[in-house]
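task queued by scheduler; priority normal; single chain, no ligands, no partner chains; default sampling; output format set to structure tokens
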Amino acid sequence: MHHLIIKTERLLLRPFNLNDAKRVQQLAGDKRISDTTLFIPHPYPDGAAEEWISTHKEKAESGNEYVFAITLKDQNDIIGAIGLVVNKTFNNAEAGYWIGVPYWNNGYVTEALASVIKFAFTELNLNKVHAHYMASNIASGKAMIKNGMQKEGYFRKHIFRNNEYHDAIFYGILREEYLANDKK
């Protein structure tokens, strides 16, 4: 399962390897990435990317988490990351992602998220995929909406990041909704 590769029109989603670490540090080290994600540190310390990547294989093999490097089809260089954290008890998963600043506003997240949602329902047979974003990160929400996700909640001052509280907006899509849209 870990050697899973997903191809979309413009992208290739593949497992990370240690050769990607420097690039992760470079892209994720931008303060604008840290500002819109929950756990990416700024500054991004040496060794942190290697440590993160080294956990992926075991998590995928246990079926608890799948993390993909987002790459442009014609290049091997990563442009971002997307993943699913699976809750086996409830048969759902939370999607999370980030994309390098130079690649913003190209619809790459929308495309990557579409393929990961499909993977969740067709390969993992999950019942639901959910995700949330900080209210200030409008682009992230647009990717969710474009993928047929429904707004499920607005959580006020739900996240504490960079010494301030942020509102979080939650979205989800059910297996039955995905299948109904897929038939159209």
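post-processing summary
- Residues 108-122 form the longest helix (15 residues).
- Helices lie at 21-28, 31-34, 48-53, 56-61, 108-122, 138-146, 175-183.
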